[in-house]
Design a protein that fits this description.
- By secondary structure, the chain is an alpha/beta fold.
- The chain has one domain: Spore Coat Polysaccharide Biosynthesis Protein SpsA, Chain A (Alpha-Beta Complex), CATH 3.90.550.
- The protein is 29% helix and 25% strand.
- The strands form 3 sheets. Strands 1, 4, 5, 6, 7, 10, 11 and 12 form an 8-stranded mixed beta sheet that branches. A two-stranded antiparallel ribbon has the order 2-3. A two-stranded antiparallel ribbon has the order 8-9.
- Strand 8 and strand 9 form a beta hairpin.
- The longest helix has 12 residues.
- The protein is globular.
- The structure holds cytidine-5'-triphosphate and magnesium ion.
- Cytidine-5'-triphosphate binds next to helix 3.
Amino acid sequence: TDTALIVVAAGSGTRLGRGMPKAFALVAGAPILEHALRGLAAVDARLVVVVPAGLEADASAIAERAGVAARVVVGGETRADSVAAGLDAAGDARWVLVHDAARALTPPAQVERVIAALREGASAVVPVLPVVDTVRSVEAARQSDGDVLGPIVDRAALRAMQTPQGFDAQLLRRAYAAADARGASTDDAQLVQALGEPVAAVRGDELAFKITTPADADRAESLLGPAIR
Ligand code: CTP
Ligand code: MG
């Protein structure tokens, strides 16, 4: 295969608050990482899973239960560090997709839309959704309670970013080599854009939401139904 798929799962899961790295927290009876990998089993790509130090063997066992072959590597302090670690292990693939394990219910069709856009000539692709809420900027960002509200931002001109984000592998490597952006961004396409390269959009999916808070985990649990084991 000419495609590598990096699944970043090395975050700590502070906002989920389960007292363990998020990808290893159970939802509907299985780790979030297992749900994510099950959804990727049919994708034709070389899988690299990036996890916290010390959890490599657990991740390999989870991959096996999910029915996928994956190379497991250790991530870093920030998401960008983890993506960089995944890139180092991605080999010489022509295209690289970077996906959040926390988007555990991402429909396989979304991954395929990203791959199709790359094959059709895009060098950077992001799945996006329209923004549903009315949105304002803030003049002085504090905690939400103390924000001083600025004007409404036309939501028709906004899109929410999802993953997997897909790239020409050489372009993504160049973007990561332009190092100062590293550490700051939670969006790989932003690093590519900083090089002046165009970023294409494909349709995202509500099911590709990121499990971030306990309420998100409840939603995932209800969508997955009763425990799978
Ligand atoms: N991630 C990672 N390495 C990091 C930080 C994040 O691989 N150092 C991954 C997470 O595992 C997740 C994805 O990036 O799959 C999106 O990050 P996020 O939802 O913020 O996860 P966490 O950082 O784990 O959560 P929190 O910010 O609440 O601690
Ligand atoms: Mg985080």
